[in-house]
Records
---
Amino acid sequence: MKRNSYTVTAESRGERLDVFISSHSGLTRSYVQNLIKDGMVTVNDHKEKVSYRMKEDDRVELALPDAPENLLVPEDIPIDIIWEDENILVVNKPPDMVMYPGLSHSSGTLMNAVVSICKKLSSVGAPIRPGVVHRLDKDTSGLIVIAKDDAAHHNLVKQFKEREVEKYYLTLLYGNLKTDTGEIRTLIGRSASSRKKMSAKPKSGKEAITQYEVTERFKFATLTKVRIITGRTHQIRVHFASVGNPVLGDKLYGKKTVITFPHKTISFPRQMLHAYSLKLKHPVDGRLLEFTAPIPEDMKRAIEEIGD
C-alpha cells in the first residue's frame, strides 16, 4: 500500500475532492471516485464524499492499493524517442494514438509502448498511467515527457503548475485570423450542452491563456504557432473555435474536415495540431532542456495541398 499526502492551496480552493486528487495524482477521475467510495481517501483525517469542496490548507491523504502487475500490458509498438536518461523519457507521440488504456482503448496506447521499453517509471499515476505528467489528445501529435521516478515526476508537475514549462504547437486553422499575433484569454470549463466538450463561456471554469503568431496565410486557412500559458483540457481547440477559426479537422469543435476549392477538395482526417516544441528544466540537475519534433507527414501534406 502506497500513501500520498497533499495540502490544498488557494488555487485549488472550491475544487471537488475527486477533481483535486485526479489533477495532483495523475489518476483517472473514475478511479479516484472508486478510491474515495472505498474509504481510501481522508480529508483532515475524516472521510468525505466525492463532491466535497476543497478548502485552503485542507490535508488530503490518499492510500493506493498495490496495482495488479498485468493491468498495463507491455506491447512492442515502435515509438519515436526524442530523449532518454535515468529520470525522464521524451517521445514524439504519433497522431491516432491514445495516451493510456481506458474503456474504449484497452491496448495499443502510448503507455503500452512505453512500459515495454522502460523497466522503471514513476509510481505516480499508477496503475494505468505511471509517469504521465501531461497529455495530448488522441488525434494531436507531438512531444510528451514521462517521468521515470517519483522525485522527477513531482518536480515536473510543479514546473507545469507554476507555468515554467514552455509548450509550443503548430496548428492549421480554418479561415484567416484577424491579427498576426495575439492572445486569447477566457475561462474554460465543462460545456453545459455536452459532457464531452469544453467551453470558453462556461458557468464556471478556470483561467485559460493562449498566445499565437501567424506563420503563413493561405486563402482558406492560417498556419499558426501557438503557445499555451495554461494547460486546460482542449484549450487550443476551444479557444480558436471560440473566435471563429477552429482547428481544421477537429470533429468536436470545428467540424471543418473538408475544404472544397474550385479545382480540388482537401480532406483532414484528424485535427491539424502538433506539439512541436517543449522547453523545461531537467528535474534533477536543473539544466534547461529544449526538444523539438518534426511535423508529421499528414500535416505536411495538408499544408502543401492548401498552399498549391
Note: The longest helix spans residues 150-161.
---
Amino acid sequence: MGAVLPLITGVIWLYVAWRWVRKLPAGKPVRGVLAIVLLLVAEYHSITGRFFGSLASAELPRLMLIVLSWAFGAFLLLAMLLVLRDLLGGLVLPFARRAGRGILADAKLSVSIGVLAAALSAWGVWQAVKLPAVKTVDIEVQGLPAAFDGYRIVQLSDLHASRLLPASWIAAIVAKTDALHPDLIVITGDLQDGTPAARAADVQPLHDLRARDGVLAVPGNHEYYVDFRGWMAAFHELGVPMLQNAHALIQHDGHVLAVAGVTDPAALMFGLPGPDLKKAMQGIPRDVPVILLSHRPGNAAASARAGVALELAGHTHGGQIRGPDLLTKWTNHGYLSGLYRVGSMQLYVSNGTGLWNGLAIRLGRPSEITRIVLRAPSRPTSPRSRASVTTPP
C-alpha cells in the first residue's frame, strides 16, 4: 500500500493538472504554483509518512491534520467533480456547440468546481471529526433465549485513536457510551493508529468503559501494522480483552449467550494466526446462540454456514462518501453499511465511530455509536440452522 498509494495519487494529480489547472483563468506562474501545491497535497501521505511518523499515523498537531485532511479531501472531490464534468461534457458538449455555447469548458465553471470541492471537503471533515450520534438498532436473533430479549450491546468500531482523534475525543466517546448503560460493550477492530508509546495517552480513556457484562474486542487490520503484541498487552492492561479466535460465554437466569471473535486477515502478512472461526466457536454448545465479532464483514457467508446467529463488523467506514462508496461495497463482497440478512444469520456493519486520519472526510455516511437491542424471535428456531446463504443486494 505504501508503494502503490503515491502512484495512484500521482495519476489523479496529472488528471487534475491537465483538466483543471490548465484551464483556470490565471497566468502561467500562478497555475504553475497551484500545480505544485496540488502535487504536495496529493503526495502528503508519503511526505508525512517519511518525515512525521508513518503512513498509518502522521504525528502532527491536530489542527494541521485537520487542514491537511481538508486539502486532500478537496483534491479528491475536485477530481471526482472533474470526471463528472467530463462525462457530462461527452453527452452535452455536441449540443452546446451547435447552440454556440462552450458551457462545460467555461473557465468560470472550472473556478466554481474548485470552490464547490473546497466547501464540500470542509463540511466532510467536520462530519468526520465531530462526535458521532447514537444509532439504535433492534435485531431479531434466531435462538435467542427470552432471558436475553432486550439485551443491550453498544458497538464501537474503527476508533482509530490518533493525533486527529486524541484522548479528549476518545474520552467523550467513552462517556457517551457509558451513559447508555449497556449490558455489553464490543469493539470491532481498528482501535488506534501508531505505536503503543505514541498512543498511550490517547487510548487510556478506554479503561473507563463500563458495562454490566464487560468489554470484548477483536483486532482490526490496523492493530497489526505496528507492534501487534505490544498493543495486545496494552489493551489487556486497559481492561479491553481481545478475542483472538476465541469466545466468551455470558450467563443470565440459567441461559447462555456466546460471543466469539476472530482475528483479521492482515495477521497473515505478519506471520500471525489468521481468522479461524472453527477455533473461535470450539466448545460452544449447539443450543447456544453465537454473536460473532469480526472486523471485516466479507466472511459473512461462511459465518452463516457455521451457524452464527449475529455477526457484528466494521472496517468499511460505510464507504465514507456516497457514490464512491460503491467501490468499498464491491471490495467487501457487497456488505457496506447497516443490517443484512445472510441465510439465517443477521449481519450488522457499522459505519465506524472514527476513521483513519489519512482520509478524514464523510459525506452522507455518518459515524456512529451503535446501540444494538437484541430481540428473541416470535418462533424459536435452532441457532445453528444451515439455511442457504443469500448475497446482499
Note: Residues 353 and 367 are 5 Å apart (CA to CA).
---
Amino acid sequence: MRFLRQWGRFMMMGARAHAVWEIEASNRIVRDKKRLLILGLLLVPIILGGIAVAGSEGEELPQFLGGKKAYSPAFFTTGIFVASILIGLGAGLITGCIGAGGGFIIAPALMSAGIRGIMAVGTDLFHIFAKAIMGSVIHRKMGNISIALALIFLVGAILGATAGGMINRILYEINPVLSDAFITTIYVIMLGLLGTYALIDYLKNRKEPDASGDAHGGKTEGVEMGNLPRRIQSVKIPPMVTFDQGLVPGGRRISAVFLVLTGFLVGFCAAIMGVGGGFLTFPIFVYVLGVSSLTTVGTDIFQIVFTAGYAAISQYAVYGFIFYTLAMGMLLGSLFGIQIGAMVTKVVKGITIRGFYAMAVLAGFVNRAFALPGKLAEMDVLPLSKQVTSVLDAIGIWAFFLVIGVFAVWVIGTFLRNMSTLKGEEVLP
C-alpha cells in the first residue's frame, strides 16, 4: 500500500509539472498573433478535406499513408470537428483549472467515442507535438538546458518510442481488440493509481484551514538532492555527463547510462499511452536523478518537441494511425479551455479543485475499467455475454462523460458568473 501511495504521489508530481508546460504553451500561442496564424494554417487541410469529401459524391475515400484504412471518419464533417473541440476543451479545462494533466482523459474519451486505441494514442501524440511546436520557447530556455544531458536523454527516448510504437502496432496486427485491451489496461492501472492518490489527498486536506492553497502543486524543488539521487550520481559508469554548472560549483555528474534508461522509459510510455511522456520527466529528473528543477524544465520542453514528434510521425502517422481532424480540433479546444480554467482558479478554493480532479481521474478509471471486460470477452478470455459487456461499457461511458460534462459546465458557469471579478476586482487569496 505504501508503494502504491508513493507511486501515486510520483505521478501527481509529473501531472502537475506537465500541466505547467501545457499552460505556458497555451499562453504563448493564444497571446501571439503569429502563433495564432500558424494555428489557422494548420486548420486549412481540414477545410480543404471537407470540400474534397463534399465533392466526391460518395466515391470511396483514399486509404491512409501506409495502406491502412480509416478506423473512423478521416475527413472533415461538422459533427466530428465539434466533438474533437469539446474533447480538447474538457481536457484544457482540467489542465488549466486543476493544474494537473487533463491530457489523461483524451485517449479514454476517444476510445469511448468508438475510435481504436492505437489511433487515439497516435492522434493524441500528434496533438501534443503540434502544441509543442507552436508553444515552444526553447530559444528562451537554452540557458537552463544541458545540451549533452538533453541529447543523451533523446537517444533513449527515440529507442523507447520506437519500441512502444512497435508493440502497439504488432498487437494491432495480431488482433485490434488485443491492442485496445492492452492500451485500456495501461490506462486502468495509471488512472487507478493517480485517482486513488488524488482522492486520498483531497480527503486528507479538505478540513485543513490552509487547504485552499496552490492547486497547481506549489513551488518546485531547486537544487537539493535526496539519498537516491546521491547514490545514482555516485555510480561512475562512463561516459559521465556534467550538468547544472551554473547552479552548483563545478556542476554535477551522472552516468549516461541512467539518462538513456530514463529517456527510454519516457519515450516508451509516450508511444504506448499518447500523453507525450512529459508527466514522467520532471519527477524522475528531480527526485531520482538529482537534476535541478530549472534544468529539468528546460530539458522537458526540449524533449517533448522531439519525443512527441518522432513518436507521432514515425510510429503512427506513416502507418495511418492519426486522425488529423481530431488532433487539430483537440488542439483548438484545449488552448481556450486552459485559458478559462486558469482564470477560474482565481475565484475558487484550491481544495474544491482537488476534489474535482480526483473525480475526473476516477471517472476515467471507471470508464476504462468497465470497458476492459468487453475487450477480454471479445477475445474469449472472459465468458461474458454481449448484453452484459454492453451494459458495463454503457455504464463506463455515461459515468465518464457525465462527470467531465458536469465539471466543464461548472467551470464555464463559474467563469461567466465571476467575469467582473476576473476583470480586476478582489479574488480569493
Note: Residues 2-422 form one domain.
